[in-house]
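As a representative case, the lines below give one protein's residues and fold tokens.
***
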Amino acid sequence: MDRRPADPVTRVLVVSGEPVGGAMAGPAIRALELARALAGHCRVTLAAPGPSHVEDPRLELLQATSADFDALLAAIRTHDVVVAQQLPAQLLRYVQKLPIRYVADLYNPLMIELLEALADAGAPRERSLARRLTRAVFAQCAAADFVICASEKQRDLWLGGMGLAGLLDLDSYRRDPTYRAVVDVVPFGLADRPPTHERPVLKGVWPGIDVDDRVLLWGGGIWRWLDAFTPMRAVERLTAEGRRVHLFFMGIDRPGADRQLVPSSADPAVAYARERGLEGACVHFNRGWVPYKERQSYLLEADLGVSAHHDHLEARFSFRTRVLDYLWAGLPMVLARGDSMADLVEQRELGATFDPEDGDGFAAACAELLDDDELWARTSGRVREAASAFRWEEAARPLVDYCVHHRERPVPRKHPVALAMSTYGQYPGILAHQVARDGPMEVGRRMARNFARAFRHGV
């Protein structure tokens, strides 16, 4: 198929797997903000499941889920570059044959999270879902012209995986021995404008939290791989020592999430707080999810930003997206060691770190920052200085450069056999899941439509 006449302005389609606008978790936030960063240089369409809305007039919104094959394929045909965290198997085969470039945004190593998500699952379900998801991730790598991720640790992970799978290209290496022209880092970013306090939300407003009390803010939800219990034990200790300290969880149930892949530990955490008499006294749970635009008021009323995780593989390759909000608000941080954000805190003296599951260490770190106003102020200043490197415009620069100059970049060697194995290999698991959910008759009709479409388009 001949390429369309060159357009001086790159047309980019950014695909979100979750609704955008209002209450959003990390994947939707990243898709929206990358689309915004690209919109200053390219013509951008943002595809997202409904109900979605965007307030940026530079973005064209297409409300479509990954199941809306025809709508997404039509959009892909009219763009030059497609950016997605994951495209379904059928679309990937079209993407490889069309005269477009595919950017795989692998900022969230799902196959690592899956280990923890399925730790207590039954063996058949565990093996089936793990195989399907691993093949889905491998398919993104096999189809991608450019891969982005959120940290240098993640980049090492993807380079190693692609190398073992035979997806590293000698010609690409000769052109660029750093291989950043193929795999590069695009971390999560921050808004250019500083946060503003729009209305009181915590101190003197939230039941049990007085105006002069101190607040430890837990951004985001309580996922299985995180550790909500260590901060709760630490706050219980700080309270017993006479401090008016509260731990506030900004959300419980993640909007737009596949609960099979993002299991929550909120129920055990709430049960623990209730059993210990902490809920409503010094531990507070927001039962909903703070809308994206409203989070700044919570951040600006907090005294410390906190995060904790268990000692496992997920932490090593994670990028705690909501921890970046602490940078945006100038919040000193107390974080469990082992992830990339904790490394940054230690390198730049942005707060304190503690060993995973060390409640005494967590409490001591919080007490030191809360009891010394001068230390808190110096630390907050360093946090604000560090935030400048994470502005979306700066963070997204490798992606923007790729999209703007994609015509000048050689097309990497394609991997049709690897793509076929990883896409067709997903079908048995997908078929079994759909039969269980929709019934054999509906799945049969859907397969007939898919075969007809594949025959029509020659894919």
About this structure: The two ends are 13 Å apart (CA to CA).
